[in-house]
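name: query_chain
kind: protein
chains: 1
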Amino acid sequence: YRALSATLLRSGDLDGACKAALQALHLDPGDSRAYDVLADAFAGLDGADNHAASRRYFEKSLQLYPDNWHAHHRLAVLLQNDGELKESLDHALTAVSLKPSAEFAHVTAADDLIWLGRIGEADIQAKAGLVELPSSTVLRSIQAFTRWELGDKAGAQSTLHDLDGIW
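structure:
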């Protein structure tokens, strides 16, 4: 049922995904990944109530499996979308520490830092991500932005030149 839920979620059937995830949880209340799918389904719905439900499901997943980098990252994205940047950053950095090769956990952390006005730290985060993922065009784009904002116009232009044609 968890696999069915994940498949339905990816095909856009949020109602079916929720029902299948709930059935998975009925069969195994300790299935943290079923909570992840349920949380992702609710995160895809509009409204504060749905986002609150999504957050509760991610938190339940993390209660069952605290080292779930994916749940930390997805919760960070949800929190970021809801404007809770400091808490989002905490979860994004936890996701990065649990899985340093998780590209979009680095991106989420760097974006949080940018939006918090902590450009120097965002540049450091992008660099750390590029150590793990040197071909990441998204992290290199963030680095071009942070370099520009930090006054390193030549560094920003060099990074943009390296990205020329990739996008």
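note: The chain has ten helices and no strands.
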